Amino acid sequence: MALDVEIKSQLAQYLELLESDVEFVASLGNDEDSQKVKEFLLEIAEMSPKLSLVEKALDRTPSFQVNRKNQEPSGVAFAGLPLGHEFTSFILALLQVAGRKPKIEDELITRIQSIQSNLHFETYVSLTCHNCPDVVQALNILSVLNPRISHTMIEGGMFKAEIDERKVMAVPTVFLNGAEFSSGRMSIEQLVEKISGPQDASTFNNKDIFDVLVVGGGPAGASAAIYAARKGIKTGMLVETFGGQVMETVGIENMIGTPYTEGPQLMAQVEQHVKAYPVDIMKGQRAKDIRKNDLLEVELENGAVLQAKSIVLALGAKWRNINVPGEDAFRNKGVTYCPHCDGPLFTNKKVAVIGGGNSGIEAAIDLAGLAEHVYVLEFLPELKADQVLQDRLAQLKNVTVLKNVATKEIVGNDEVEGIIYTDRADNSEHRIDLAGVFVQIGLVPNTNWLPETIQTTDRGEIIVDKHGQTSLAGVFAAGDCTDSAYKQIIISMGSGATAALGAFDYLIRN
């Protein structure tokens, strides 16, 4: 297969960085998929004298290992073609197997190398999934750093029988030693915590008092951290996963000055910007309480307590649930929230999209190109999406729009088999047989853990003034977790800057 000229040009630059010889150990047959993988590997091997290809029978065909030549297997393998969003995973695996140090903190490297169990991970992906590379790259790093750990990325398109046999209905889905381990995007910090337990609270004992402690790692939190650090004050950043909700966004076309970007790409750039300043970024950590004594205190779920003179809450939001029977039971077994990631798993199947706003109609348009039929269920008498999206939807012959209906139940046995809804006009009940339900009804703020001293609206949004300050002195808030009128990336960034400047002004006056 011929790689795009631009891709080959970029790849050539990375291959110059190889620190040692790398060997592709490939299991190939006479089938068409094997031929594609062979052509892919040969084309890349021909680009550098440090790359070579040998054939050997492996557990899956077609698949290949990425090994340092004349050494023990690295533990990193790919079953199928690592193209699309996974091409970056492939390039990073090449560099790291060849000896390049992964770009993670030394403390995390130590935690990974101290894992004593024998762990074999398998990650099922689709090449259109923008969440999958985070998991694939993280597990590849674990394999490179610890000889007890191995990982195989499995491209669902080439291994559909395996996908069906294991009932994989969402990506990324990870199996550990043959049993399902996780589903959905996870950071390397979260994976390590799931494997070896939470980071010990004692590791936070030596933290000094922060002038500003930002809680949250999305656009608002990153903006707040940058603005605070630029004031020359001690800044900390407590994040569960860097990037927040933006990591779920594929196409971004309204970032002023950037006609088009994608969520993971944007937040990778934002993270590098934050790291250009002396910000103490504490990843994989969740806060569970805030209290005010002589100083403000944030208690983490692992029991550690961080002290700060001021706090910026940039907690973001998560997908809103429809809260009907079957939603939790069939989560990742037909119920999903990401059409870009999981859509290919429902090719030629019937699916439903819950929600008639912009996100719901965009999802229906995308899914119509894959699914046998798409049903859109909207609670209100009319769709809420922009007219241009409604016009595009109306042109699709395999989409049925049901308005003024209420989802009552998602039904099935081991996986989704249908959806039951009520027609609100006459209260009649109906069932549609289908395989997947995509929930797209907006977001809910991540504020349910906050104390009563921080006032929120009846929707859980933090109430802030024009400086971003909350009802608790010294605590500020920004982004989608607040009562801002509009939830947009650029607005979150602006409100993060406002909150940081408000916190700085508070410190000067107090």
**What fold name goes in the CATH topology slot of the largest domain?**
Glutaredoxin
- Percentage of residues in strands: 25-35%
* Number of helical stretches of at least 4 residues: 13
- Fraction of residues in helices? 25-40%
Q: Based on helices, strands and strand pairing, what is the structural class?
A: alpha/beta
Number of domains: 3
Let me know the average pLDDT: 95
> What's the β-strand tally?
25
Shape: globular
- The whole-angstrom Rg is 24 Å
What distance lies between the first and last C-alpha atoms, to the nearest angstrom?
Answer: 65 Å
Question: What's the level 1 CATH class of the largest domain?
Answer: Alpha Beta
Low-confidence residue ranges = none
| Named CATH architecture of the largest domain | 3-Layer(aba) Sandwich
Explained architecture:
Homodimer. NAD(+) binds at residues 350-364. InterPro entries: AhpF_NTD_C, AhpF_NTD_N, Alkyl_hydroperoxide_Rdtase_suF, FAD/NAD-bd_sf, FAD/NAD-binding_dom, Ferredoxin-NADP_redctase_2, Pyr_nucl-diS_OxRdtase_2_AS, Thioredoxin-like_fold. By secondary structure, the chain is α/β, with parallel strands linked by helices. 28% of the residues lie in helices and 25% in strands. It is built from 13 helices and 25 strands. The strands form five sheets. The chain has an eight-stranded mixed sheet. α9 (263-275) links the parallel β10 and β11. α3 runs parallel beside α5. The longest helix has 21 residues, at 489-509. The radius of gyration is 24 Å and the shape is globular.
